[in-house]
Amino acid sequence: MTGTVAAIEASDFVMRNWTAGETGPVRIGSPEHLRMFAQMLLDTHNPYKPAVIDWPKLEPDALARVTSLPIWDIAVQTEGRASIRVKTFAASVEEPLLRQALELDADEEARHKVVLSKLVEAYGVKLAPEPDYPAPKHAVWAWLVTGYSECIDSFFAFGLFETARRSGFFPEELIETFEPVIQEEARHILFFVNWVAWRRRNLPVWRRLTFRLTEIAVWAFLIYERIGIARGLDEAGEMQDANFAMQGSSAIGVDLSPAELIDLCLAENDRRMAGYDKRLLRPTLTPALARFARRFLKP
Ligand SMILES: [Fe+2]
Ligand SMILES: [Fe+2]
Q1: Could you tell me the pTM of the whole model?
Q2: Which SUPFAM superfamilies match (predicted)?
Q3: Is pLDDT at 243 greater than 50 in this prediction?
Q4: How far is the CA of 82 from the centre of ligand 1 (A)?
Q5: How far is the CA of 2 from the centre of ligand 2 (A)?
Q6: Confidence (pLDDT) at 236
Q7: Residue 29: left if φ>0, alpha if ψ -120 to 50, beta else—which one?
Q8: pLDDT recorded at residue 199
């Protein structure tokens, strides 16, 4: 094995497996808990460089499938917005370790955007002109919107990505090239849900209430946004602004029932979270909603 391959495999293992140095139980909301989830994000950072990614050459049919996927504009723009939102929130945080972890999170979002731009460039996908990414006015709101969006979208992306891998929709090399980005989103949502739990417990009682109300408002906004996206999709007859998660399996040309897709998302969610310290909280809301919806679907 060459040194480079070994180094890549080592980084890959590091980004998926992490246990804190502390032993014994850790109380959620405690300073140890904060140290733990911030350190998890920092220690599992994979230092790959998008500029040196060797994009696999695709056969004409695979190339056509990749370039015709109507997700690239929205994907690039989502990463651009996520980066500035997380960065703005990071700047508002005083606790040094938490701030450092948030800055890393924002940098990884910026790197996702570069990865996507490189992919688009490598395969000759035409992108719509990009909008500006202004800094949000309300840092906490923007952070919560990004965090909970990622909780929803990553959950479905896990299942769709696995579907695309199994079906051969994307060639294996492309799946492998893209895999770290998906695992990074798993780390982000793991970090995010632990931050939410830590934050809730460290607020005075009356502010806990306003925090809860803000979270509910964020969820209402995200549901509204996704219904709007789904409607826009019908009218326009295309997916240009759609959430890939909502329409994904048909877009990747796989005949998967909604129940099967949910089962795959749940299994992949568990698999991607399995390597991290068991004392950290796992994202539970989206999987619970998916499990609930699953009950009404035919197997
Ligand atoms: Fe991202
Ligand atoms: Fe992310």
Answers
A1: 0.91
A2: Ferritin-like (SSF47240)
A3: no
A4: 7
A5: 31
A6: 41
A7: left
A8: 97
Percentage above 90 pLDDT, the chain: 65
Question: CA 33 from chain center: how many Å?
Answer: 22
Identity of the amino acid at 268: E
The answer on pLDDT for 256 being more than 90 is: no
Give the ligand with the smallest distance to the CA of 149: 2
**Per-residue model confidence as pLDDT tens digits over 17-36:** 999 998 899 999 999 999 99
Domain boundaries, the chain: 31-294
Residues 71, 87 contacting (CB under 8 angstroms): no
How far apart are the CA of 234 and the centre of ligand 1, in A?
26
Instruction: Assign 238 a pLDDT band (cuts: 50, 70, 90).
Output: very low
Token pair listed for 260: 């099967």
Span from the CA of 295 to the centroid of ligand 1 (angstroms) = 30
Q: Note whether 81 and 142 are within 8 A (CB).
A: no
The whole-angstrom distance between residue 67's C-alpha and the CA centroid of its chain comes to 22
* Ligand nearest to the backbone CA of 185: 2
Q: Put residue 237 in one of left, alpha, beta given phi > 0 → left and psi -120 to 50 → alpha.
A: left
The tokens of 185 are what? 């989103």
Pick the closest to residue 62 from 157, 149, 177 (CA basis). 177
- Ligand 1 centroid–CA 122 distance in Å is 19
Q: What is the CATH number of domain 31-294?
A: 1.10.620
Tokens for 54, please give them.
Answer: 């060797």
Residue type for position 291: R
pLDDT digits (tens, 9 = 90+) for 221-230: 998 888 876 6
DSSP 50: G
Find the 107 Cα to ligand 2 centroid distance in Å. 10
Interval between CA 84 and ligand 2 midpoint (Å): 12
> What value does the mean pLDDT of the chain take?
89
Ligand minimally distant from the alpha carbon of residue 150: 2
Which pLDDT belongs to residue 177?
Answer: 87
